[in-house]
Design goal:
Elements lengths: L2 H9 L4 E2 L13 H16 L10 H5 L2 E2 L38 H6 L10 H12 L2 H10 L3 H10 L9 H6 L6 E2 L3 E2 L6 H6 L14 H18 L4 H10 L1 H13 L13 H18 L17 E5 L6 H8 L3 H7 L15 E5 H12 L8 E6 L6 H7 L4 H7 L12 E6 L11 H10 L5 E6 L6 H8 L3 H7 L13 E6 L4 H4 L2 E9 L6 H8 L3 H7 L13 E7 L4
Antiparallel strand pairs: 1-2, 3-4, 5-6, 7-8, 9-10, 9-11, 11-12
Helix pairs in contact: 5-13, 10-11, 11-12, 11-13, 14-15, 20-21
C-alpha cells in the first residue's frame, strides 16, 4: 500500500516498544532485541523511500514497532432509522447547553478538562495530525459503531473524556489490530494483562478484541493506574503504555535527584514520551476545532449497537443471516470470536446494530437450540482420535466430548459421534483467525514464496539471515511481530525475489509478467494460469482500467505446485 493509505494510519496508531515494560509485564532487553532494533534502524536508513514499511528511523532505532491492521476499513450498512448523517465539519457548540448535542464529537469536546501545555513535544504531534487531515476521517469510520458505547462507559465511570482518544492512539479503533508483544485489540492488551483485567482468551474467543470486554478491562486498568499514581492521569497514561514499574522507577529517580516528577520531567522511553502528547494533541485539536483546518467526520450522538444475549453457542453465519448482516459485518462488530462460531462456554452475547435487534431476536426464538449449529454424524474409523476429529472439523476436543457426554478420550471403531461443523465453507468466515492469517500469508510480496515449518530454536532473526530477507517483513508476512515467539510446527511463508536450485523444489509460487494480447480478458487469463479471478484483479489493482489493452503488462502469481 501507499503511504497515504497505510503508513500514515500506522504511524500514530498505537506504536509499542518491545524492549519496554508493556501493560504491566516486563520484557528484558536481550542481546537479540538490540540486534533487532539495529537491523530495523539500518533497514530504515537504507530504504527510506519505503515509508509504508518503516515509519520513523529514530523511533525504529529504539525498537518502536507499529501495530498491524489485518482488515480493511469496512462500514456497517445496517443503521438505526434515526441515525442521521450530519455535516462533517460542524463541531460548533450548541447555544443551549441543556440540549444534548447531535454530534458525538461535540459531546466529547464539551467535557475535555486536561490542561494543554505549550511545549515542543505536544506541538510536534499536533502538527502531524494537522498535516494529515484524512487520518481522523479513516479513524471515525472505524469508530462509528463503537464510539457512543465507549463514551457512555467512560461517563458512567466518571472518568475524563480524553480517554476516548486512547483507542485512536493505540489502534486507530481497529479491534483486529495487533502489535509487538502479542498486544491485540482496540485497547491493545497483551495476554497477561488481558487476563488480569477479565479478558477471557481461549481457542474460540479472545476478549482483548471484544469491544465490550476490552473496554471494561481498559477502564478497570486505567482506574487502577490512576489510583496507583495518586490521581495523576498523565502518569497513569504513561504507565498504560510502558508499564507501571517503569514509570514508578522514573519517578523515584527524579525524587532522588531532586528533580520534578511530573510526566514532562520523567526519563521515559521515546515512544512513551510521544504517546501522551499524541492523546493531548487530539484533545487540543478537538477543543480548537473551529480554528484548525481538520475535519472530524461526524458521528451521531446516538447508540449504534446493542448487546444481545443469545444464551448458547451459535454459528456466526447463521447469526449474520438472522440479523440481516453480512458475515463480515457481524464479525467486525464481534471481533472477539476467533472461529466460525461463538465460544461454547461463553460469553453468549453479540453486538448488533440497534435496527437489527428486534428482527434478530424474533428469528432466533423460532429456532431450536440444536439448530444454532450444523451437525455431522461421524462414524469412527481406524486411526481416528478425538484430536484428529477436532482438527478435521475445526472444533475442540472438549466440545466433541461435551456433545457426546464423554468422560474420557477412548473412542471405538464403528461407533458414531455428533460433531458441530460450520454452516458455510471456512473461507466464508474471512475474519476468523485462520482466514485472516491465510489472507496475510497469501498476499504476494515477492517473486517466489517458500514454506518453512518452525523447528525448536527457530527465531525470526535467524530465519531472516538464513533466507536473506528483512526480519520485520518476515514477521509481517505471517501476521506476527518480530519479537513474537515461534512455536515448533507453525508454518511460515517467506517471500523471496529469487531461489537457489536447492530451494526451487520447495518454492510454492512464482511471479510471471504477462503481456495482454488482443481478445484477452481477465477471466481468460485467470483460466489460462489456473488462478482465481479475484486474486488476479487484486494483484493488478493499481494498473487495471475499465478495459484491458493489448501490450499491457500484468502480474500473475503462479502456484508452481500445480505446474
Amino acid at each position: 500500500m501507499k503511504m497515504t493509505s497505510f503508513s500514515l494510519l500506522m504511524i500514530l496508531a498505537g506504536c509499542q516498544t518491545f524492549m519496554a515494560e508493556s501493560h504491566g509485564e516486563t520484557e528484558k532487553q536481550t542481546h537479540q532485541e538490540q540486534l533487532i532494533a539495529e537491523q530495523i534502524s539500518k533497514s530504515c536508513k537504507q530504504k527510506h523511500a519505503l515509508a509504508d514499511e518503516l515509519f520513523d528511523c529514530t523511533s525504529a532505532s529504539h525498537g518502536t514497532i507499529p501495530v498491524t491492521h489485518p482488515t480493511e476499513i469496512v462500514e456497517i450498512t445496517v443503521e438505526p432509522d434515526n441515525y442521521v448523517e450530519l455535516p462533517a465539519d460542524e463541531i460548533a457548540d450548541n447555544n443551549d447547553s441543556s440540549e444534548s448535542p447531535e454530534n458525538l464529537w461535540l459531546r466529547i469536546k464539551q467535557q475535555l478538562t486536561f490542561p494543554i501545555p505549550d511545549n515542543d513535544r505536544l506541538k510536534a504531534q499536533k502538527n502531524w495530525y494537522l498535516k494529515h487531515p484524512h487520518y481522523m476521517q479513516r479513524v471515525a469510520t472505524r469508530a462509528k459503531p463503537f464510539m457512543h458505547y465507549i463514551v457512555e462507559q467512560i461517563e458512567k465511570n466518571q472518568m475524563p473524556l480524553e480517554l476516548v482518544f486512547l483507542p485512536i492512539v493505540e489502534s486507530a479503533f481497529d479491534p483486529f489490530a495487533y502489535s509487538h508483544g502479542r498486544a491485540a485489540g482496540m485497547w491493545q492488551f497483551i495476554p497477561g494483562t488481558g487476563k488480569r483485567f477479565g479478558m477471557k482468551q481461549t481457542w474460540w474467543y479472545d476478549g482483548r478484541r471484544d469491544v465490550v470486554a476490552s473496554t471494561e478491562g481498559a477502564i478497570a486498568y486505567l482506574t487502577y493506574l490512576h489510583n496507583m499514581f495518586d490521581g495523576d492521569w498523565l502518569h497513569a497514561l504513561a504507565a498504560y503504555n510502558s508499564g507501571e514499574g517503569r514509570v514508578r522507577s522514573a519517578i523515584r529517580r527524579n525524587k532522588k535527584a531532586g528533580k520534578p516528577t511530573d510526566f514532562w520531567s520523567l526519563d521515559l522511553p521515546k515512544e512513551t514520551r510521544a504517546y501522551v502528547p499524541k492523546l493531548l494533541a487530539l484533545s487540543s485539536i478537538l477543543k480548537d476545532a473551529d480554528d484548525n483546518n481538520i475535519v472530524w467526520t461526524a458521528i451521531p450522538n446516538k447508540p449504534f449497537v446493542k448487546v444481545v444475549d443469545v444464551e448458547t453457542q451459535i454459528d456466526l453465519a447463521l447469526a449474520a443471516d438472522l440479523a440481516g448482516l453480512t458475515l463480515k459485518e457481524l464479525h467486525l462488530l464481534n471481533a472477539g470470536f476467533n472461529r466460525w462460531a461463538t465460544d461454547p462456554d461463553g460469553p453468549h452475547r453479540l453486538l448488533l446494530p440497534i435496527e437489527s435487534v428486534e428482527n434478530f431476536e424474533l428469528a432466533l426464538n423460532k429456532i431450536e437450540e440444536n439448530e444454532r449449529l450444523n451437525w455431522v454424524r461421524h462414524k469412527i474409523k481406524s486411526g481416528d482420535s478425538l484430536l484428529k476429529l477436532a482438527k478435521q472439523y475445526h472444533t475442540t476436543v472438549d466440545v466433541i466430548k461435551g456433545v457426546n457426554d464423554m468422560l474420557g478420550n477412548m473412542i471405538r471403531v464403528g461407533d458414531y459421534m455428533l460433531v458441530p461443523v460450520s454452516l458455510k465453507s471456512l473461507d466464508s468466515y474471512s475474519l476468523s483467525q485462520e482466514q485472516r492469517l491465510a489472507t496475510t500469508q497469501s498476499k504476494p510480496r515477492g517473486s517466489y514464496s517458500l514454506n518453512h515449518k518452525v523447528k525448536s530454536g527457530d527465531t525470526f532473526w535467524d530465519l531472516s539471515r538464513k533466507y536473506k530477507v528483512d526480519m520485520r517483513s518476515l514477521a509481517k508476512w505471517n501476521g506476527m511481530a518480530p519479537n513474537d515467539p515461534l512455536m515448533p510446527g507453525k508454518d511460515l511463508v517467506i517471500w523471496v525475489r529469487q531461489v537457489s536450485e536447492s530451494q526451487r523444489k520447495d518454492a510454492v509460487m512464482r511471479t510471471l509478467t504477462y503481456t495482454v494480447r488482443k481478445g484477452d480478458s481477465l477471466a481468460r487469463i485467470a483460466n489460462k494460469f489456473k488462478v482465481n479471478l479475484g486474486d488476479l484483479k487484486r494483484w493488478n489493482q493499481d494498473k487495471l482500467r475499465k478495459y484491458l489493452q493489448p501490450g499491457q503488462k500484468i502480474k500473475v502469481y503462479v502456484d508452481v505446485t500445480r505446474t
